[in-house]
Specification:
This protein is α/β, with parallel strands linked by helices. It has 15 helices and 11 strands. The chain has 2 domains: 237 residues, Alpha-Beta Barrel (TIM Barrel), CATH 3.20.20; 79 residues, no CATH class. 45% of the residues lie in helices and 14% in strands. Helix 3 runs parallel beside helix 4, helix 4 runs parallel beside helix 5 and helix 12 packs antiparallel against helix 13. The radius of gyration is 20 Å and the shape is globular. It binds flavin mononucleotide. The site of flavin mononucleotide has 28 residues, from strand 3, strand 9 and helix 10.
Length: 339
């Protein structure tokens, strides 16, 4: 694979992450374990280990596996709103994991400082321009700027807008862009716009090495972009955490549940707290149901809109080769167009 243009454009990302290709495989709960970390690292990409809500000792063991199976750097993704977050933080602080990635809402200044004092490099997700600015003030070393096209928990602003609000203003830290990226051609264009690299999730679910249930992968193969929908939410009395997932029986039932709860609240049959609890409990265990049990009708089939851009399951080696060849070709095309 001949790489010339890409190496010029993504030098900052390569140096920052310490990998050959600054293409991040975003952490995915129940999916991004040490084996997926190895599969991505082996191809020269940057992998994330998902803490999800696993017990602290399990996270420590997974970090240890990542450290012994390869000497390539990787990130540990901590969800700040997970009940086990304090244990996860401790597990990372006690480990030799080089990079931590804060996700799910955003970290406190103290979380960032503790990690930096322990010698870790810190990345944080940013889903709005104000979160991006706040994270830079808190001292993070880089941002993952992620638009609402992405799979999993999302903000409300699209990648297209975030690029103009944040990336184009060249904040002081490297920016990795995620949400809606699945092709090499798009990787190239993100780099041209100033990204240090990109993050993808949905495309990597479609790798042979990803251990997600075959039913989920088959559903991804068939899915169209418009089927990857943000969770329905109708009433401010019933706050809903926005998640992008494929439409199925459960997404429909979730909409119906909210309408029924609104009716009951208006009639005084349930109070707001009871109703809210029902909403919060609805998706409990939903991602596991889809990813591990393969119940794609009732589980939470988290997927980005770029699910409509990918229609086959490929070995990780082939995915990286395709991304890089297509990105390099796009840059050659741009060069030719500019004469
Ligand atoms: C099935 C699934 C599970 C995910 N779980 C997590 C997670 O646990 N933590 C996290 O920070 N992001 C999570 N994400 C988001 C990805 O890490 C990544 O940022 C996102 O998929 C990028 O957008 P894309 O889907 O358009 O490629 C998840 C995404 C998917 C598709």
């Amino acid at each position: 694979m001949k790489i010339t243009c890409l190496d010029k454009l993504w030098q900052e990302g390569r140096d920052f992450l310490g990998v050959r290709f600054p293409i991040l495989c975003g952490a995915m709960t129940w999916i991004s374990d040490s084996s997926l970390v190895k599969a991505v690292s082996d191809q020269g990409g940057f992998a994330s280990l998902a803490a999800g809500n696993m017990p602290g000792e399990m996270l420590s063991a997974e970090i240890e596996k990542c450290l012994t199976q390869s000497d390539r750097p990787f990130g540990v993704n901590l969800v700040t709103i997970a009940p086990n977050f304090p244990e996860h933080k401790e597990a990372v602080l006690q480990s030799k994991a080089p990079i931590v990635i804060f996700a799910g809402n955003f970290p406190k200044r103290q979380d960032v400082e503790e990690m930096k004092e322990a010698g870790k490099r810190v990345l944080s997700f940013a889903s709005t321009d104000s979160i991006a600015a706040q994270m830079v003030r808190f001292g993070v070393d880089a941002l993952i700027l992620e638009g609402s096209e992405a799979g999993g928990h999302i903000g409300h602003v699209s990648t297209m807008i975030l690029l103009q609000q944040v990336l184009f203003h060249k904040p002081d830290v490297p920016i990795f862009v995620g949400g809606g990226i699945a092709t090499g051609r798009m990787v190239a264009n993100m780099l041209l716009m100033g990204a240090a690299g990109v993050q993808m999730g949905t495309r990597f679910v479609m790798s042979e090495e990803c251990h997600a249930h075959p039913n989920l992968k088959a559903r991804f193969v068939r899915a169209r972009a418009r089927e990857a929908m943000s969770t329905p939410a109708y009433d401010k009395r019933l706050p809903v955490v926005a998640v992008r997932a494929l439409k199925n029986k459960s997404t429909e039932a979730f909409g119906e549940l909210q309408l029924e709860l609104m009716r009951k609240m208006n009639a005084g049959e349930v109070n707001r707290i009871e109703a809210q609890l029902e909403v919060e409990n609805f998706w409990m265990g939903g991602l596991r149901k889809a990813v591990i049990d393969g119940d794609v009708d009732h589980g939470s089939c988290m997927a980005g809109q770029c699910v409509g851009l990918v229609d086959k399951i490929q070995p990780m080696r082939e995915i990286f080769a395709e991304l890089i060849t297509d990105a390099e070709a796009e840059l050659e095309r741009v060069k030719a167009r500019l004469g």
